[in-house]
Amino acid sequence: MSQLDTVNRILDAAEVLFAERGFTETSLRTITSTAGVNLAAVNYHFGSKKELIQAVFERFLTPFTANLDQELTRRQAQLEASPGEQLEVDDLLQSLYRVALAGLAKEGRDPKRFMGLLGLAYTQSQGHLRRFIVSRYGPSYRRFAGQLANALPQVDPVTFYWRLYFMLGATIFSLSSFDAIEAILREDFGAESSLEETLARLAPAAAAMLTAPEPKDA
Amino acid sequence: MSQLDTVNRILDAAEVLFAERGFTETSLRTITSTAGVNLAAVNYHFGSKKELIQAVFERFLTPFTANLDQELTRRQAQLEASPGEQLEVDDLLQSLYRVALAGLAKEGRDPKRFMGLLGLAYTQSQGHLRRFIVSRYGPSYRRFAGQLANALPQVDPVTFYWRLYFMLGATIFSLSSFDAIEAILREDFGAESSLEETLARLAPAAAAMLTAPEPKDA
DNA sequence: CAGCAATTAAAACGTTTGTTTAACCGCTGA
DNA sequence: TCAGCGGTTAAACAAACGTTTTAATTGCTG
Question: CA of A41 and C1' of C21: distance in angstroms?
């Protein structure tokens, strides 16, 4: 087994286990025995458990962010070519969802697992992981937020940013526990929902939230 | 120190620490030393760490659910008195937010901490806590969901339930990390946001998401 | 004041955790 | 051929964990 195999086997096992149980609930012994490698291999190749966690996120977020940036550039060029045309917000969101999804699927990464990890990063990262993600992928995130803000010139900036977090919450929360929610709905209605269908529901709903009329203050 | 004091001191300390760091990241030694009680007191009064976690949620959710039920009953009676009048969804949401919030504040409980714990329950509860909450507070939740569904007769049931989870995600996610988000917005815009103001933004945004027109399928 | 049950206290229990050590293997370049 | 090095392995490390045990202490009741 080459060293490349060992590193990737650890990352594969850690990715699945972290998304299922969280970071502290997943021991290095569980990871290494699942991966079929020696316990010491984690500390040898990654240095520590924290650095392994960062490596798992790096492997996910780097191609994801690359796809995002590419799509944002494409949209920006298209906008400059025909500046008068107003972009539809739900179309923007849905195409972003689709592009990010397709990019992950192309690399054999499960999008639902990606969302599960993203949820972990927001709820279970006390310090080091949040700093790592912000410093590494913050610019792409701000570019996305800026382009979305430009498509909503009528919305007050502070209101927009709160709604952006509302939207992130709706997306990450519902997709990170997609399987559980889908199981409940299947039991209650007998209707199955694919991830694609759910994104097709989420995009217009999120767009409606972003474009809602401002609350009239007293 | 009476036994009632010991129990409440443990609950107070555990509540804060759980909301800050999560369950597994908070040790019983940290809880008991913060509370100023002996380590064994947790197992003596609660039996185990799992049962302590349930007790923390019980102390939060019981009065919260009582307030929720009371408000739902009030609305139902009001609806039967004047059945023709269509309820506004954002008004329904905002009054629920306000009632639940006021009930917690009346007992000296921090609503933001409550939301933090609620977020934990959704993302970090593997099994026992989820079962405990569903069995104990499931009926109230279903009653709330049913009343909300009745106010949205034009929305397809499956679409409604997905949007309900979108709304829950937006609410729990953004309010559980309210302080962090507010700090970012204060730095970027110099504009402070109170929890009340944020709820006044959230209610119409969530209502817009729930009442959005259905996506036209091919 | 004696006695009993409830509570608190200190100490130790066995596990599990992340990490480190040291021996060993297989390849590559001199 | 063999020294050297990156990689793997088994074993052990100290620390932290939840829990249990046993003894001391408290507060109330007869």
Answer: 14
